[in-house]
Amino acid sequence: MATEFKQIYQPICHQNIIELIDVSFAYQQKPVVEHINFGIQERDFVGLIGSNGAGKTTLLRMIVGLIKPDSGTIKLFGQPIGEFREWNRIGYVPQKNAFNPLFPATVREVVLSGLYGRGKLFRRITKADQLKCEEALHAMNIEDLSGKRIGQLSGGQQQRAFLARALINNPALLILDEPTVGIDVETQQGFFHLIKHMHQHHNITFLMVSHDMDMIRSYIGEEPKSECGKLKFFVKHSHDLEDCVETNLTHGLTGLRQLTAEEKVGVAGWKS
Ligand SMILES: Nc1ncnc2c1ncn2[C@@H]1O[C@H](COP(=O)(O)OP(=O)(O)OP(=O)(O)O)[C@@H](O)[C@H]1O
């Protein structure tokens, strides 16, 4: 009976979120990513580790469709990336240095920009959009910063704003590129508690580049699941299969701040 149960429900919990099949990319004939084969399933937390220049950012940029692989196939939520249109299911927080601190946008504008589809930079902001923005600001505990210029914020506050931007569509997949670079240790710990909570309770799948091996080891474990060239993929699945079926873990953004506050998760650190 137990076996039948697993067979019936396996596809629900272990839906393929990202499939990389023999993916390669070169910048001006210089190979950067070579023959990557890897799959990420629903509720995995994947830590992508590799030395400087190993191609981590390049791989993430291919996955979010910013650059095209020279060869191989990328599938998102089971669809080849060329046919994939549901970009609002993916939240992406690029590396901090990808952001120009002089950009004159407010926190609210940055968070709202997470709603704009590709190529739709200017669209009318509806009341529903405003509400989503308020929820994301609230979840990250930065409502009081909403009118400030993003460049005036501390590193930790900026990361919260960019996380709110990535969360505004309630994504199923969050892709984070070295999210804690340049942030103090206490604030980093608050951030990791928060994303662990999101992984365990909010049914979000994570792909995160990090140089913080302590964090990776403490949450995901010592051994990579897979190694492709210089890239190592560490994986932790959030629940056993049975739990995935029996537990309703999907709750909205609104509950996130309350839950993290109840668990005393890093709110103080984030405010600095
Ligand atoms: N736009 C570009 N044009 C040419 N070469 C590039 C470009 N972007 C990255 N590279 C090169 O590709 C290689 C991989 O870069 P990438 O940023 O993907 O590495 P990374 O693993 O993310 O590194 P880091 O840990 O330092 O962030 C590096 O040698 C880099 O110099």
From TrEMBL:
All copies of domain ABC transporter, residue ranges: 18-253
Keyword Phosphoprotein applies: no
Keyword match ATP-binding: yes
Keywords (A to Z) from UniProt: ATP-binding, Nucleotide-binding, Transport
Protein name: Metal ABC transporter ATP-binding protein
Domain of life where this protein originates: Bacteria
GO molecular function terms noted in the UniProt entry: ATP binding
Family label: Belongs to the ABC transporter superfamily.
The species this protein was found in: Paenibacillus mendelii
InterPro entries per the UniProt record, alphabetical: AAA+_ATPase, ABC_transporter-like_ATP-bd, ABC_transporter-like_CS, Metal_Ion_Import_ABC, P-loop_NTPase
Record-linked Pfam families: ABC_tran
